[in-house]
Write a structure and sequence with these properties.
Length: about 450
């Protein structure tokens, strides 16, 4: 199963922000818990303090049943923040003063307040007498409860403050995280952008674009070294590809030479001659001009081979090929057909048959005269002194004039070969054969 891949930007963001987010949430939770607990404890402590102070101040009023005094004290307490109601009773439970928005329930002595699970906090404090002994020897009178005080506080403001504090802390945390994210983004660009450039360069090199280079300017040392390495690698690959392409071109040219040219003389071979002859036939059909083929065989070549060997014979063949080429135009072709046989292809003669025949005969006579000149060959081996060989070698030429509409390749070569054998009966001669009908 292929694993999912992510961009480096996401990795950097998550690796940076994930621990920070977890830490922020934990610290925020601890802070909010402590603060809400402190606020709740503060409200409870203030409620207990108000109840004790009111109980101490109400002793006189309860003892003297001064309801107006007790009501004044109750109103003073009611003006304190979060106080909803105040109730003062005597020891028999009779109500002496009651102020506020809610009814204060009677509570037993062992129940002093209701906790934060409800909407209110109720604090009950007994009112005790503080009689003094008149005589030091007299026993200290016992403390007696003469009434009770009940104070009701609301959770509303405290919970609102807790909510506001929570919203403020969360907003501050989010702002801090956004600020950190922006800082991480700005700082990570120095890492991410060079990595993107390196990744793009590697992909381009993989596609064969070896001219690709990564620009410098990276402040991170490791990325700078990687940039230099990729540039050096691309340059080396480019040089190696150029060298390999050169070798391929050379090998292709060698294969082409082997496929279409004679290895000894460098002349076109039979395959290339066939291709050239087809081109000449097509050109003759378009231009209405005649063309000619000369099939030639060297006379007195075999005695040279028998006497001096094939190495000297090869020297004569190379020289004969050079002489034939010197007699031809650039548009003409000379090919080595095999052994001491050569074929000359004359292209783009005249539209008139008679003039074309004369042009071909002139070229044939020039070749015959040139090849009949004596050959002076110098043969040299590594372990023997040079050997100078002089030899006279003539040529027999069979020639056929043709037109693209009146012949095909096989007929032309067959008739030229037949004409050459007729010329060879005389030796050092040129035999012209009429073109076949239709």
């Amino acid at each position: 199963m292929k694993s999912r891949r992510y961009k480096i930007g996401r990795y950097v963001a998550w690796l940076t922000l994930s621990p920070l987010l977890v830490m922020s949430v934990l610290l925020e939770a601890v802070f909010l818990h402590d603060r809400t607990e402190n606020m709740a404890q503060s409200l409870q402590a203030r409620g207990e303090l108000l109840a004790r102070q009111l109980a101490a101040s109400s002793e006189y009023g309860v003892f003297s049943y001064n309801r107006e005094f007790l009501r004044t004290l109750s109103l003073q307490v009611l003006h304190e923040p979060d106080v909803l109601a105040v109730r003062i009773t005597d020891r028999d439970g009779r109500e002496l003063a009651a102020v506020g928005e809610v009814d204060v329930p009677l509570m037993s002595a062992d129940r002093g307040r209701e906790g934060p699970s409800g909407d209110i906090l109720l604090f009950r404090q007994p009112i005790t007498s503080t009689q003094l002994a008149l005589d030091e020897l007299e026993d200290k009178p016992a403390v007696q409860q003469i009434g009770s005080v009940a104070v009701v506080l609301s959770w509303k403001r405290t919970r609102q403050q807790q909510t506001e504090m929570m919203v403020m802390v969360i907003a501050a945390t989010l702002g801090f995280l956004l600020l950190v994210l922006y800082g991480v983004f700005r700082a990570s660009r120095k890492l991410i952008e060079p990595v993107y450039r390196l990744s793009g360069a590697i992909q381009a090199i993989g596609r064969g674009e070896l001219h690709t280079r990564v620009r410098h300017g990276v402040e991170i040392e490791e990325l700078g070294k990687l940039t230099d390495g990729i540039n050096v690698m691309a340059e080396q690959l480019q040089q190696e590809r150029a060298h390999l392409q050169l070798r391929i071109d050379e090998a292709t040219e060698q294969l082409r030479q082997l496929a279409f040219f004679d290895t000894l003389t460098g002349l076109p071979n039979r395959r290339l001659l066939s291709d050239r002859l087809n081109q000449v036939l097509a050109a003759s059909m378009r231009s209405e001009r005649y063309a000619a083929v000369m099939f030639m065989d060297l006379d007195k070549f075999k005695p040279l081979n028998d006497k001096y060997g094939h190495s000297v014979g090869d020297l004569l063949l190379v020289e004969a090929a050079r002489r034939i080429e010197s007699c031809l135009r650039a548009v003409d072709t000379v090919a080595r057909f095999g052994g001491d046989e050569f074929v000359v292809l004359l292209n783009e003669l005249d539209e008139d048959r008679e003039r074309s025949t004369r042009q071909a005969q002139i070229v044939a006579e020039k070749i015959r005269a040139t090849l009949s000149q004596p050959y002076h060959l110098l043969y040299q081996t590594l372990d023997q002194p040079p050997l100078a060989v002089s030899h006279e070698c003539t040529v027999s030429i069979g020639m056929v004039l043709f037109h693209g509409r009146q012949a095909n390749q096989e007929q032309i070569l067959a008739r030229a070969d037949a004409a050459m054998y007729q010329a060879k009966e005389s030796g050092n001669a040129i035999q012209f054969m009429e073109e076949s009908a239709g």
